[in-house]
Specification:
Blueprint: H1 3-6, H2 10-21, H3 28-36, H4 44-57, E1 61-63, E2 71-73, E3 81-84, E4 90-92, H5 100-108, E5 119-122, H6 125-140, H7 144-148
Helix pairs in contact: 2-3, 2-4, 3-4
């Protein structure tokens, strides 16, 4: 990447600030919507280009988790994530990285292990609450035969 691309432009600074404001890991679309409030004339292609530059520069990291959209994380330290299988929300897990895993795998295989990622999958608290509410509603609704009764 050239020095020109590594400059911290106003747009990149705003993008970085907005990513840091999220309580989670936004997609490019979510970053675009947030940044547009401050920079109404910014284009989606500029968002993509600047997100890529910020990743390459080490200011953010891209999370290519088990869903179709990339998520972006302002925390570039090694940490783990949980992903909701219903809404796609990605959150940090409050646990220190298991560095012993890397040594264990170095001992077991011919790979030069340089790091690892861990993603837990399940239902986030909001989706779990919605699921329980639907189950509760279904349990209290009368059966069709009882309605005809």
């Amino acid at each position: 990447m050239s020095n020109q691309e590594l400059r911290m432009t106003r747009q990149r600074r705003v993008i970085l600030e907005e990513i840091r404001r999220f309580d989670g890991h936004p997609t490019a679309d979510e970053v675009y919507e947030a940044v547009r409030k401050r920079l109404p004339r910014i284009s989606m292609s500029t968002i993509y280009r600047d997100l890529e530059a910020l990743c390459e520069w080490g200011k953010i990291q891209v999370l290519e988790v088990g869903c179709s959209k990339k998520h972006f994380d302002a925390d570039t330290n090694n940490h783990y994530h949980a992903r909701c299988i219903r809404c796609g929300r990605v959150t940090n897990l409050p646990v220190q990285p298991f560095t012993y895993l890397e040594q264990a795998f170095r001992d077991l295989c011919d790979y030069k292990v340089i790091g690892h990622r861990l993603e837990l999958i399940g239902l986030c608290p909001d989706c779990l609450k919605q699921q329980k509410e639907k189950q509760r509603q279904a349990a209290t609704e009368p059966v069709e035969a009882d309605k005809k009764g």
